[in-house]
């Protein structure tokens, strides 16, 4: 009888105090593998922009205690009527609140905000931010609908947390998924 109780109690105790830390590097690696964003906006022949976001740097709790920040560096090719195409460097800083989705077993973002948008060189004869803002919004929607990290079902601790209703906290620049 005591063996049965021990067999039943040990997994419950392990799960009840389980936690898993997701570092900036973990999220960075996940996004590097899973997130390549390319978007276009505008009307060809009038005003048209193609942008690729593929260099994203992650910070957890660095700008605000409850937010993740994502610095996205990219290149954009902008073509405007009667002007030669121009390459622009586009740097966007987003911040968002992380949350855990039990059904997906993954961490997502919500309440995404554009903290900073820097465009270099900014010497087009039209408002560049007005042209590129729709792309930035599309990238933001992309980030809101894709996980920034997914728990690994092959890891016992992560699998145990995935099936529970864990709490997500930011501590010491890491996301702590805990019971």
TrEMBL record:
Signal peptide annotation: 1-21
Domain of life: Bacteria
Keywords: Signal
Pfam family membership, one: DUF1439
Protein name: Lipoprotein
Species of the source: Photobacterium aquae
């Amino acid at each position: 009888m005591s063996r049965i109780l021990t067999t039943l109690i040990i997994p419950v105790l392990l799960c009840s105090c389980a936690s898993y830390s997701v570092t900036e590097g973990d999220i960075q690696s996940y996004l590097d593998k899973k997130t390549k964003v390319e978007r276009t906006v505008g009307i060809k022949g009038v005003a048209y922009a193609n942008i690729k976001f593929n260099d994203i740097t992650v910070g957890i709790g660095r700008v605000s205690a409850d937010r993740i920040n994502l610095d996205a560096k990219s290149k954009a090719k902008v073509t405007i009527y009667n002007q030669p195409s121009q390459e622009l460097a586009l740097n966007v800083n987003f911040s968002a609140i992380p949350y855990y989705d039990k059904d997906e077993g993954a961490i997502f973002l919500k309440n995404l905000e554009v903290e900073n948008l820097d465009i270099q060189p900014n010497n087009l004869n039209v408002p560049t931010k007005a042209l590129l803002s729709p792309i930035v919004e599309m990238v933001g929607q992309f980030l809101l609908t894709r996980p920034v990290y997914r728990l690994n079902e092959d890891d016992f601790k992560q699998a145990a947390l995935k099936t529970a209703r864990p709490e997500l906290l930011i501590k010491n620049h890491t996301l702590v998924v805990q019971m």
